[in-house]
């Protein structure tokens, strides 16, 4: 069905702004009323132009809904002009009916109708399923896009360039970087450092060797736990041993440089110096010298290590090796050990315990540093390759962060896609069955087609209308063409038809064409036919308005049981009587129920045409329609040019009803005599000139100079003068004053 027609830059429609006409697809019939010149015919012309792909209408749109494609048939003056000539093209319809074939046709038609209903329902399910799939894909893409935001916040953001807002592209690309289980990924911080390394200009790094050998041997030497005692060869040894102060004696020895004791000031024995030498020299002296050598060596090694390590930590590459912590611990241990060693050196007789430093963490850290330096040197040898590796791992890190999001998305999407695939497959299956049935129907109908049925149907309708002065028949020599026939001329010219007769014959021909085709092998699906009828009673006698309305009602909208029914009927007319007759027949004589049975629209024109909804009770007759034009002009919905003629028509009908005279001028003169004034003469002149009654009304009128409200006031005053002001107020939709009852 047609659900929307969009028109612009055609006839009276706006040149740039689309005028959208929305159709209620829940109702088969739409009736559109509008005055002549409002723009009705343009609607049918657009439908026909789009259906035949006329480039003239490429900028307009006709949108349909439901199971198509649809056949659009438009009846208008152009159609009548194409049909009415010396001959009319034959319409191939069902002729002699083969009962068995017809039964098969009916069954295939019924099956296709049911299948089309199922297809329509399936397409609704497909739309729902597709939306669920699309929503989940959109949600999943948005969830994965969070990784893009994470990456943008790092120093590696440049590696995400090229995506812009292409969330779907990022979603698809990122999942290709799924990391194989067991592969260890660098942290973002580490990748940033690697990127900084490869982006710089630094040459290869070197690691000077750091020697830790021999330190353990010094720390483990047994001398630290060995008390260094004085020699027993001296006669002073027992006394020193008794006093236990050999270290003190050794420390005071440099002060004994004279024969007098430096402590007690007594004269020393003559052999004291020799005995003292015996006491402190020999094995003790060797041990003390060893201790001094070990302390000196250990202190030197510590100083060398401190000097070597002082610049190592300036390089960021050491930060992840643990070297700083390992050195801090080792340095602390060595300082403590050196302090104890110096205590031993000061008091050799004391036994001390030196803790052996744990050198392994330092060695491990140095090995890690060397590995990193080697890795760095290797990487900067191929900077472009390193950047590629960083990018790959960077995307791997982002993908790892979203791996659960991918899993959740896949789990949610799989059943939705399975459901969508299933309903699509079912839809394809049904459409294939419809196609097979359609092909079979074409074959069956091809065996039963002929042009006689259409000729007989058209002539039967002419007779039903009481028309016997002409009919149609096959043209001599060509059984596929029709021509006009009269009682005494079986092959007369169609030009002998009046305009009303041409309208009638072309309309009946159109009705037959709905269920037939110009092609003998043509396959017609009436249920997929959309019919647009534009003013089918133009130039017709009022006698035939009932007939035309009845044909539309019983052939197109509500055909007899078993007959095919068109998908949609759109009727446009300027004739209010015909418009009402269509509504009455469809709604069972009740205008109040019309809105539930059909869609009612109205074409109105001010500067440009527009289509609006219509209340069926708003236009009761042609007289009411005239008042509607005045209301539209007052509300700037109709051009001011229509006001004079409309007022004239209203007043002529009014005075005909109330005074029994159709002569407006005489009615106004009588009113002037009764009122003893000429105050309504300006109104008469306005109506005369505005409706082009005067012979001098040749030059164009500048309508912008006329105050419509002023003349509306004149009209109200006129009706007030004859005692019918309330009639004006009711017709213009204005409030009628209440009369109080005493």
TrEMBL record:
- Segments traversing the membrane: none
Describe the location of the Protein CR006 P-loop domain by residue ranges. 28-718
Coiled-coil annotated residue ranges, if any: 413-447
Question: Which InterPro entries does this chain map to?
Answer: CR006_AAA, P-loop_NTPase
- Tell me the superkingdom of the source: Bacteria
Name the Pfam families on file: AAA_13
Q: Which organism is it from?
A: Rhodanobacter ginsengisoli
What's the name of the protein?
A: AAA family ATPase
Name the PANTHER family for this protein. DNA REPLICATION AND REPAIR PROTEIN RECF
The UniProt record lists the keyword Nucleotide-binding: no
């Amino acid at each position: 069905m047609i659900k929307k027609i969009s028109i612009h830059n055609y006839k009276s429609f706006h040149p740039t702004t689309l005028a959208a006409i929305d159709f209620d697809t829940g109702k088969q019939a739409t009736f559109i009323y509008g005055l002549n010149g409002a723009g009705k015919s343009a609607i049918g012309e657009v439908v026909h132009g789009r259906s035949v792909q006329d480039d003239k209408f490429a900028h307009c749109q006709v949108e349909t809904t439901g199971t198509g494609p649809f056949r659009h048939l438009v009846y208008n003056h152009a159609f009548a002009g194409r049909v009415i000539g010396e001959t009319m093209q034959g319409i191939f319809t069902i002729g002699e009916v083969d009962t068995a074939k017809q039964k098969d046709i009916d069954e295939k038609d019924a099956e296709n109708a049911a299948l089309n209903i199922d297809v329509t329902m399936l397409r609704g399910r497909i739309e729902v399923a597709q939306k669920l799939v699309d929503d989940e894909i959109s949600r999943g893409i948005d969830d994965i896009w969070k990784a893009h935001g994470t990456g943008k916040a790092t120093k590696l953001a440049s590696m995400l360039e090229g995506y812009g807002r292409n969330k779907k592209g990022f979603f698809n690309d990122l999942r290709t970087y799924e990391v194989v289980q067991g592969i260890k990924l660098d942290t973002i911080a580490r990748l940033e450092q690697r990127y900084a390394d490869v982006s710089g200009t630094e040459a290869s790094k070197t690691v000077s060797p750091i020697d830790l050998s021999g330190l353990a041997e010094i720390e483990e030497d047994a001398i630290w736990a060995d008390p260094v005692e004085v020699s027993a060869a001296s006669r002073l040894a027992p006394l020193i041993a008794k006093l236990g102060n050999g270290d003190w004696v050794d420390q005071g020895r440099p002060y004994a440089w004279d024969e007098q004791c430096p402590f007690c000031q007594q004269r020393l024995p003559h052999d004291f110096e020799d005995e003292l030498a015996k006491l402190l020299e020999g094995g003790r002296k060797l041990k003390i010298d060893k201790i001094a050598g070990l302390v000196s060596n250990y202190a030197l090694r510590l100083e060398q290590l401190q000097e070597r390590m002082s610049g190592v930590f300036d390089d960021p590459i050491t930060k992840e090796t643990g070297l700083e912590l390992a050195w801090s611990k080792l340095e602390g241990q060595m300082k403590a050990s050196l302090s104890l060693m110096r205590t031993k050196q000061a008091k050799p007789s004391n036994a001390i315990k030196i803790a052996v430093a744990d050198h392994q963490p330092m060695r491990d850290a140095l090995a890690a540093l060397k590995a990193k330096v080697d890795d760095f040197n290797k990487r900067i040898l191929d900077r472009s390759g390193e950047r590629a590796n960083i990018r790959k791992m960077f995307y791997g890190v982002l993908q790892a962060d979203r791996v659960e999001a991918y899993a959740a998305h896949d789990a949610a999407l799989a059943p939705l896609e399975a459901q969508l695939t299933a309903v699509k497959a079912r839809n394809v299956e049904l459409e294939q069955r419809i196609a097979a049935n359609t092909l079979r129907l074409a074959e069956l109908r091809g065996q039963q087609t002929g042009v006689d049925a259409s000729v007989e149907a058209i002539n039967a309708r002419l007779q039903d209308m009481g028309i016997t002065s002409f009919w149609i028949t096959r043209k001599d020599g060509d059984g596929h063409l029709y021509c006009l026939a009269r009682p005494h001329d079986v092959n007369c010219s169609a030009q002998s038809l009046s305009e009303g007769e041409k309208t009638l014959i072309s309309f009946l021909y159109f009705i037959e064409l709905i269920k037939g085709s110009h092609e003998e092998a043509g396959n017609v699906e009436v249920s997929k036919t959309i019919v647009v009828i534009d003013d089918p009673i133009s130039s017709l006698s009022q006698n035939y308005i009932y007939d035309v309305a009845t044909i539309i009602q019983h052939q197109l909208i509500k055909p007899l049981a078993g007959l095919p029914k068109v998908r949609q009927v759109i009727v446009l007319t300027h004739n209010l009587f015909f418009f009402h007759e269509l509504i009455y027949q469809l709604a069972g004589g009740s205008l109040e129920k019309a809105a539930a049975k059909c869609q009612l629209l109205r074409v109105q024109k001010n500067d440009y045409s527009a289509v609006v909804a219509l209340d069926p009770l708003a236009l009761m007759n042609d007289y009411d329609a005239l008042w509607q034009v005045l209301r539209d002009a007052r509300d700037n919905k109709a051009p001011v040019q229509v006001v004079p003629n409309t007022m004239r028509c209203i007043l002529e009908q009014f005075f005909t009803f109330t005074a029994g005279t159709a002569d407006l001028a005489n009615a106004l003169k009588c009113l002037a005599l009764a009122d003893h004034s000429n105050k309504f003469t300006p109104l008469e002149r306005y109506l005369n000139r505005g409706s082009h009654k005067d012979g001098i009304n040749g030059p164009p009128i500048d309508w912008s100079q006329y105050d419509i409200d002023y003349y509306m006031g004149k009209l109200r005053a006129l009706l007030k003068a004859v005692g019918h002001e309330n009639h004006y107020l009711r017709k213009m939709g204005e409030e009628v004053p209440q009369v109080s009852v005493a």
